[in-house]
Amino acid sequence: MSQPAARTRRPAWNRKNPYAAEVLESRRMSGEGSEKDVRHYRFAIGDSGLEYQVGDGLGVRPINDPALVDAIIEALGASGDVEIAGKDADLRTVLSTQVEISVPSTDLLEAMDGRTHDGELEHVLATRDKQALEAWLWGRDVLDVLRMAPLGCLSPDEFVGLLGRLQHRTYSISSSPLSHPGEIHTIVSTVRYRSAERDRGGVCSTYLADRIETGDRVGVFILPNRSFRLPADDATPVIMVGPGTGVAPFRAFLHDRRGRGASGRNWLFFGEQHRASDYHYHEEFEEFLADGTLDRLDLAFSRDQPPAEGVAKDYVQNHMLRHGADLYAWLEEGAQLYVCGDATRMAKDVDTALHRIVGEHGGLSDDAAEDYLSALRKDKRYLRDVY
Ligand SMILES: Cc1cc2nc3c(=O)[nH]c(=O)nc-3n(C[C@H](O)[C@H](O)[C@H](O)COP(=O)(O)OP(=O)(O)OC[C@H]3O[C@@H](n4cnc5c(N)ncnc54)[C@H](O)[C@@H]3O)c2cc1C
Predict the structure, then answer these.
(1) Span 238-386: which CATH code?
(2) Could you tell me which CATH class the domain 19-62+168-223 is placed in?
């Protein structure tokens, strides 16, 4: 007799149907004098049935900045009340909740070809040089592009049709179901910059920082990350490299390991700009050290020493190199190594440092060191979640 097909349980909450989680806390973690605006958020998951494991991400559905929406409506020479064909909503609603109004889409740029009064944009579009286009786009948004065209050259319907869908943003979960039941925590660095005489902000990080208050509800869902899990064996030592917001999953790991009474040793490398203002979760980490959850904690504050010529800034990889013999010994004892955070520079620098450590302390040639790290990757003992 044939077996009935196994039913897969689909999560109730997802990208298209996020759960409206209540914000329990929105706290600025960056202290006075910090150049950053890093915040700790706590969301209530109540009886939603949302389940996660440490290492997973949280998808957050943002709402666009109303001031930017107003400015776009004005630049279109339209009224916010006008109904948009096929969207079942008016222009203001569509611009607020349905389309990406920050980074210009390719369709919008192509529609501008031959219609703008901006020579530089016309030139970049004509050459079809991807790199030049990216350079031109850096620091420019949909409003900048729209303002380069004559007023009324695009109808609201036409304009909306050229924009991409407003996407969720992903944040590493920084809580553990064992230590923070009924809640999900994240740590978010708010994107703010000034370009072409206008203050600009990242869509989702400023939505959370500037327009959401405790008690408000935010659309969220879980993004499982099966390739960034704690070792199945609680006795396995763990090395975590997580500067900046990259520390988020490691705060979750440490709470989880403590909650499970895991016997394996834990070593955390954390880095930021200034100890006084940017040492996030320092009270918790000091407590983890005091109660033995953390065996080692190495901290790198890149802007604490006076800038001097020839003096490299203090980054996590310097500490890894300084303690290379111990780090190699941990790896030889079976430690699992995790890296989270900035993909552009940090992850590469950490990888280079690992090569050096393995080469020097394992007495390996460059090629053999690469083979050693490849084997770690293959065995899922060198895991990265970088963005
Ligand atoms: C797997 C994963 C995990 C992540 N975890 C975290 C996390 O734990 N914490 C966290 O804070 N983030 C995390 N992120 C990043 C996060 O998803 C968002 O990308 C980030 O918050 C920015 O989103 P935003 O909507 O605020 O900005 P967006 O509206 O997406 O704007 C970002 C864009 O702004 C432009 N821009 C930014 N700075 C400048 C500048 N100085 N000059 C000119 N242009 C600029 C660039 O075009 C950039 O792409 C993670 C990402 C991934 C993929």
Answers:
(1) 3.40.50.80
(2) mainly beta
For the stretch 20-73, pLDDT in tens is 999 999 999 999 999 999 999 999 999 999 999 999 999 999 999 999 999 999
Question: Domain spans of the chain?
Answer: 19-62+168-223, 66-161, 238-386
Q: Indicate whether residue 341 lines ligand 1 (CB < 6 A).
A: no
CA–centroid distance, residue 171 to ligand 1 (Å): 10
Our answer on whether the CB atom of 192 is closer than 6 Å to any ligand 1 atom is no
For the CA of 225, the closest atom of ligand 1 is: 1
Distance CA 84, CA 91 (A): 6
Any ligand 1 atom below 6 A from CB of 227: no
Answer whether 300's CB lies under 8 Å from 344's CB. Answer: no
CA-nearest residue, atom 24 of ligand 1: 202
The CATH code of the domain at 66-161 is 1.20.990.10
- Give the percent of the chain with pLDDT over 90: 86
